[in-house]
What we know:
The complex is a heterodimer.
Chain A: E1 4-13, E2 16-26, E3 31-35, H1 42-50, E4 57-62, E5 65-66, E6 77-80, H2 92-102, H3 107-120, H4 136-149, E7 154-158, H5 166-183, E8 186-191, H6 194-200, E9 203-208, E10 211-216, H7 218-223, H8 228-233, E11 238-246, E12 251-254, E13 257-260, E14 273-278, E15 284-285, E16 294-304, E17 308-315, E18 318-325, E19 338-342, E20 349-351
Parallel strand pairs in A: 3-8, 3-9, 6-7, 7-8
Antiparallel strand pairs in A: 1-2, 1-4, 4-5, 9-10, 11-12, 11-14, 12-13, 14-20, 15-19, 16-17, 16-19, 17-18
Helix pairs in contact in A: 2-3, 2-4, 3-4
Chain B: H1 27-31, H2 34-55, H3 66-69, H4 74-107, H5 112-125, H6 130-141, H7 146-153, H8 168-192, H9 196-204, H10 209-237, H11 241-247, H12 254-263, H13 270-302
Amino acid sequence: MSYLSISHVTKQFGNTVVVDDFNLEIEKGEFVSFLGPSGCGKTTTLRMVAGFEIPTSGKILLDGADITDKAPNQRNVGMIFQSYALFPNMTVAQNIAFGLSVRKESREMITQRVDEMINLINLEKHATKYPYQLSGGQQQRVSLARALAIHPQVLLLDEPLSALDAKIRVSLRAEIRAIQKKLGITAIFVTHDQEEALSISDRIVVMNVGVMEQVGTPFEVYNFPTTVFSANFVGSLNNASAEVVNPASGFISIDGVQFESAVDLTQRKSGDKVRVAIRPERLSFASEQKKANVVDATIENITFLGSVVRIRVKIGGTKFNMDTFNNPFLDLPKIGAVEQITCSREAVLVLDE
Amino acid sequence: MKSSQTSDPQLSNVTVGGASRPPRLNFGHWLGVIPFFVFSGLFLIAPTLILAYRSLEGANGGLTLENYQQLVSDTVISAYAMSIKISLTTAILGGLIGFLIAWVVSMGGLPPRFRLITTTFSGVAANFAGVPLASAYVFTLGRVGLVTALFKMFGVELYKNGFSLYSFLGLILVYLYFQIPLMVLTILPALDGLKREWREAAENLGATPVQYWSRVAFPVLMPSILGTMILLFGNSFGAHATAYALTGGLFNLATLLIGQQISGDVLHNPGLGYAVAMGMVIIMAFSILIYSILQRRSERWLK
C-alpha cells in the first residue's frame, strides 16, 4: 500500500465540481507536483490533504490512517504557502519553534530543533530578525524550516515560489528539492509553472478543470503526453488536425503533407480525424542523409530567443515552430526560402481529437 | 558596478545601479498641501501658541507661573481625575464592545450587507455628539424619556433603582454612543489585515484556535487595539459640549472647568482656564504620540 492514498476524492462547492474523482497513490519520499492552470483544482486537492477543505466524497489515507475528516491541527502535515504566512510578531527562531511550542515539546528539544532547522536553511545570522526584515526568498526558507520542524509526514507546498523573482525561484526550487531528498520526506508541490514541475518532481500530475489529465514522470509527461491538454500545457507545441492515411504503417496526413508516426494507429481507421503534436525542438533542417518525414517548408519568420532561435515555417497550409540551438556560426535561411524540414517518427505524437 | 542614469524626470529619485539620488524639491508638488498648512496654522498651531502664552499671563498682564501653580488645587485635580476616569472607562468599554462588534462584522461570516449597514451607522454615530446627542438621550433615558417610560410600563422604575442619566453612569452611556462606533471604524481595517494564511499556518502546525488567537492574532492586533483605545481616551477627554448639554456644567470635568474659568460669571479666572487647557493639550499630545508609535508598529506587521 502506498504512503499517501487519495482515493476517488471529489470536491464540490455548491453545484460546481472543483475536483472530480481524483485518484493518486504517492510513495514515501516521493516528490509529486500538481501542475495545471488557475482553477484546475490543484490547490483544492492540496488543501484537502492539509485538512482545510473536506472532500465531498472519497478518502485520504496517510500511512494507512484515514485522515479524511481530521482537523488540520490533528494531521501531521507541514504546509508552505505562496505568501509565506510567517507570523509577523515572531522572529525567525520563534516562527520555527511555534509548531513545537504548541505541541508542548521541551525547551531543550525546541532549542535543538530550531538550531538544526536554521542551519538547514542557512539563515544562522537571521535567527533574531522579524519577517519584515527578510527578503522574499529568505522568508520562504523560514517557512520551509517552520514546516519541517514538526517532523511532518508529508510536506505540502502551495505555489511556494510564485511570489519570488526568477533567479531566486530557480535557486530556491533546487534548495527545496535538495532538502526534500536529504530528509527523504514525501512532498506535494502545487504549481502552474511547467518548468518548475519538470525540474523538481519525481512525478507530475497534470490537472485541468478538476480532472487528472495525465500522471507520469517529467520525461513521460513532456515526451509522451496522452491528452491534447497535457501536450499543450507542458512545453511549447505544434499541434494540427490530421487524418489517418494508413493505420498499419503509421501514416497520417496534415493538409495533404504526409507524416509517418511511431504511434500505434492500428486501432484507428483510414480517414479518422486525429490531432498531431510535434515539439518545436524535434523539427530540424534535413541533412544530406535523408530520414523519414522530410517535407518542404517555407520559412516565414525567424525570432532570436537567446539560447534558442525559433523559426516559423509553413508546411502545406499549416504553420509550425521549429527551435534550433543558437550558435554564432548558425547558417540561418532567408525568409521566404523553401527548405527541407524533418523530424523522427517518434516525434510525431498522435492524440485524440 | 557601473551606475546608469535616467533622464526621465518621473524617475529622478529611483535607485539606479545601487545609488539613490535625493528627490528634487518641486514647488508644484507642494501647492496642493498649502491649504492644509494654512488650516493647521490657523486652527491648531496659532491657538496652541496663544493658549500657551495666555496660560502664562497673570491677572495684571505680566508673565507668571501662578496659573500653573493653581493646577494642583483640589478642584482642578478632581476635574482632571474625573475626566481621566470617564475617558478611561469609556475607552476600555467602548474598545471592548467595539472590538467584539468589529470581530463579528469582519470574521463572523455574516452577509456583506451587514458590514455595510454597521460601518455606515458607525460613520454617522461616531460623529454624533454635543447637544443633539445629549438631547437624544434626555428624550429616551431622561426622567420622562421614552425608554424610561417603557421600562415603567413593565414595572421597572429606572430612576427609583438608582439610575440617573445625569450621573457618572449616564455620562458613560452617552459617551459610549460615539466611542463604540469609533472603535468599530478604526479597528475593522486591522482585523481585515489578519491573513487567513496565518490562521491556517498555525492550525497546520498543530495550534488550537485559542493558541492561534493568544499567540498570533491578539499580539498582532494589540498595537492597533491599544492605539485605538488611546484614540478613544483622547476623544472622550476632549469632549465638552455633550457633557455640558447633559449636566448643565454641574459635573466637574476638565473641559467644563475650562469653560467656567474663561466665560463663567462666578469662577472667572481665564489664566487658570488656559493653564488647565494647556495641561489637557499635553495629555492629548502624549496620547497621540503613543497612538502613533503603536500604529506604526501595527502597520509594519500588517503590511
